[in-house]
Specification:
A 6-stranded mixed beta sheet has the order 3-2-1-4-7-6, with helices on one face. Helix content is about 35%, strand content about 25%. The chain has 9 helices and 14 strands. With about 290 residues, it is of the alpha/beta class.
Length: about 290
């Protein structure tokens, strides 16, 4: 089969054998939204040379404005419920003719008054549960970080923090950006300065006041321009993690090594046990949902 995680900015695809092992991997800088009828042709082109007929997709490809909207499944959502709610996409007469294509629904948490959602991360959690059935707390760092609580093998709750997007906005488009090197220059991560930002997030004043400190520390030569991005990152991640306290340890982190290492450092500073898992859990989860 072919497992595909197609988000708002990129596509990742895995070719899996009958046992679910990854045989080949592809990645493309191609967003899932706004293609309409051309979506099937774009996907067929991205998968050229792979002749497997079973396709299972997750992510923004199933959102409104994606290939085919797969309605959100409310919490608590079990892997079995997700599998039963797969959305079939007709391929007859398209570039994918002869293949079966289905999309995993997203998951809806929060409350009626203030809902919270995720798309794509649910498949990584299915993959995690196949390996760690007793997992209770999951953090998926990113542009919109997801905090997911698990109970009895089901997704019980979702909480989103716009940490990555906030970092990008402050780093590139705010007054704070003037005191930092251009984003075109290579960024050298300073772990000690990042830790200072995490520690500052626990002091009085609140996030909005702490953010202004990025400028004043630079103004009085206590924070070099090259150090400011790491300090900003520490502040934002520190506030994000502290907002989730108390946590049910160990926290299972799912993500890439760079961002995952930052969150692990923040957890260590706060005395929280954590385990880091790779993003390929999405392929594992999609295999289990197909099976």
């Amino acid at each position: 089969m072919i497992a595909v995680d197609w988000g708002s900015s990129s596509l990742r695809a895995w070719r899996l054998n009958a046992a679910g092992a990854i045989v080949d991997t592809r990645r493309a800088d191609l967003g899932a939204l706004g293609h309409g009828a051309a979506t099937s042709a774009l996907l067929a082109d991205a998968l050229q040379g792979w002749d497997d007929t079973e396709l299972l997709l997750c992510g923004m490809v199933g959102a409104r404005g994606g290939w085919s909207e797969a309605p959100y499944l409310p919490c608590p959502a079990t892997p079995a419920a997700l599998a039963q709610a797969l959305q079939e996409v007709p391929t007859q007469g398209t570039a994918l003719q002869g293949r079966r294509a289905r999309i995993v629904p997203g998951v809806r948490g929060g409350s009626q008054a203030l809902p919270d959602v995720m798309r794509g991360e649910e498949t990584q959690i299915v993959g995690l549960l196949s390996q760690c059935p007793d997992a209770a707390q999951v953090c998926l760092p990113g542009t919109h970080s997801k905090w997911v609580s698990l109970q009895a093998g089901a997704i019980a709750g979702v909480h989103t923090a716009m940490t990555g997007e906030s970092y990008a906005l402050y780093r590139q488009h705010s007054m704070l950006a003037r005191s930092m090197p251009p984003t075109s220059e290579p960024e050298v991560f300073d772990a000690e300065v990042f830790a200072a930002g995490v520690r500052r997030s626990g002091e009085p004043g609140g996030l909005l006041h702490h953010l202004f400190g990025v400028r004043t520390l630079g103004l009085f030569d206590r924070l070099a321009p090259a150090q400011a991005p790491a300090y900003l990152s520490g502040l934002l991640i520190g506030h994000e993690v502290r907002a989730q306290l108390p946590l049910r340890a160990p926290v299972h982190l799912i993500g890439g090594p760079t961002l995952g290492a930052r969150y692990r450092q923040a957890f260590d500073l706060l005395g929280i046990d954590s385990h880091l898992h790779g993003e390929d859990l999405a392929a594992c989860g999609l295999f289990h949902l197909t099976r």
